[in-house]
Design goal:
Elements (H helix, E strand, L loop, with lengths): L14 E8 L5 E7 L4 E2 L6 E2 L1 E5 L3 E8 L2 E7 L2 E4 L8 E3 L13 H11 L4 H8 L3 H11 L13 E9 L7 E8 L5 E7 L4 H10 L2 H4 L2 E6 L3 H10 L4 E4 L1 H26 L2 H5 L5 H5 L7 H13 L1 H18 L4 H18 L5 H9 L1 H5 L1 H4 L4 H16 L6 H22 L11
Parallel strand pairs: 2-7, 10-13, 13-14
Antiparallel strand pairs: 1-2, 3-4, 5-8, 6-7, 8-9, 10-11, 11-12
Length: 428
């Protein structure tokens, strides 16, 4: 009794299937030939039809069928130019195979999709391919730097740094954009955060694209801010509100540590034990506290009016940033808050008051459109996972490729592979 059979399209153009074989290992080897009858002369560029002969057999890997490896076997056609001196021959190029590549572009796309949010090693094991073959797909198909022609409008620019090695200060700068449609785009990975390096990159943005950037979100690192000011003079600079919050909340937390140290020495042990569990209650926003946490904080504040004042001022500033108010209204309220701090007698906010004065416009620019570096911080969390997953990526070009693949891979490659749906043959 013959086994059941199906016909599956190869989904590659201009070929005829000559033979299909199954190896002892269960792989499909499909012999094909080109149905095209011409080529372009490599010397003069004219279309040539004088058939010269066939090259040696070439075997390339294609998309799997029913979980089995598929290989296409063919002999490239060669054509002779009767016009050029010496009558040179030209090998016929094929849309479905790039010269010297061990795979078809379809299979490359399949591998790139498998690489999203995983490692080269994992994909090489799953696909039973050498590590260098999978790496080669990334090198061929993913650019090492941004292709500006892929963008028509950038919107919001993000600048932040990450350390390539934990505990080291070998920072690289991640430049991103939040596009008008909300999509996050990786624009660059810079080898250091020197102002000259950042400035040079910003200058590389095409003039027409630079004109579409309306906001740059960053932390308080002066190199970023000065580079943006010098190159993108029309751009509104916003110092991220969460970096600001880190500053003033850290100032209040310093008082908490000092006061708890004092109370530990001054209070009876039993009374001090009742103050345990106030760390996270103190650090949470007032509106997020449970009744139990509110009770613990109230008990703590009885022993430390200074800490109660610091906590109240911290919460007041947080509420200002939470309001949907204009920049002018915010400036008025923050100035009033600064006066309350100065009259409180607290010194813990002194450094933060200087920070507010130094970066006044950049901080209050947040209230224009309420833009922040939230999209940058979200990417940073993804990068931490990427570094751990790939055991550290120290090459900035490779890091750019992997970030790009993780951000854009599903959008670019999953769409292309839906038409295959797991079946990729034209065999009979």
């Amino acid at each position: 009794m013959s086994s059941a059979q199906i016909t599956v399209p190869l989904d590659i153009p201009d070929v005829r299937v000559l033979q299909t074989q199954i190896t002892e290992q269960g792989a499909f080897i499909i012999t094909v030939e080109s149905t095209l009858s011409s080529a372009r002369c490599r010397c003069c560029g004219r279309e040539i039809r004088k058939f010269h002969g066939l090259d040696h057999w070439i075997i390339v890997q294609h998309l799997p069928i029913l979980g089995r490896p598929v290989y296409l076997r063919y002999r490239p056609k060669r054509y002779r130019c009767e016009t050029c001196k010496g009558k040179p021959t030209t090998t016929q190029p094929l849309k479905w195979h790039e010269s010297n590549s061990p795979q078809t572009p379809h299979y490359d796309t399949h591998l790139l999709l498998q690489l999203v949010n995983t490692t080269i090693e994992d994909v090489s094991v799953k696909e039973r391919l050498p590590y260098d073959v999978v790496l080669g797909v990334i090198e061929r198909r993913i650019a090492e730097q941004v292709d500006w022609t892929q963008y028509t409008e950038l919107g919001i620019l993000g600048l932040d740094e990450i350390a390539l090695k934990k505990g080291h200060r070998d920072f690289v700068v991640i430049v991103t954009a939040r596009l008008p449609n909300g999509r996050l785009a990786i624009l660059g990975v810079l080898p250091d955060r020197e102002k000259t390096t950042v400035r040079k990159f910003l200058q590389s943005i095409p003039v027409s694209l630079a004109a579409t950037i309306h906001t740059a979100c960053t932390d308080m690192y002066e190199g970023y801010i000065q580079a943006v000011r010098e190159v993108l003079r029309h751009v509104r600079i916003v110092i991220d509100r969460f970096h600001i919050a880190q500053k003033y909340r850290g100032a209040a937390d310093t008082v908490r540590k000092q006061e708890l140290q004092r109370l530990k020495h001054e209070l009876p042990k039993a009374d001090y034990q009742q103050l345990k569990g106030t760390l996270w209650a103190f650090r949470k926003n007032q509106v997020d506290l449970t009744p139990t946490e509110q009770e613990r904080l109230a008990r703590l504040f009885v022993y430390s009016p200074e800490l109660a004042a610091a906590h109240l001022l911290r919460e007041e500033l947080t509420l200002i940033f939470e309001q949907a108010i204009s920049q002018l209204q915010a400036q008025e309220q923050i100035r009033a808050w600064q006066e309350r701090v100065r009259h409180s007698g607290l010194s813990c906010f002194d450094d933060f008051l200087n920070t507010l004065d130094r970066w006044w416009n950049e901080i209050t620019n947040y209230f224009v459109n309420r833009d922040s570096s939230g999209f940058v911080e979200g990417l940073n969390n993804k990068l931490k996972v990427l570094k751990r997953r790939c055991y550290g990526l120290l090459n900035v070009e490779h890091l750019f490729q992997r970030i790009f693949l993780d951000l854009e891979g599903y959008r670019l490659f999953a769409r292309d592979t839906t038409k295959y749906a797991g079946f990729h043959g034209n065999s009979q």
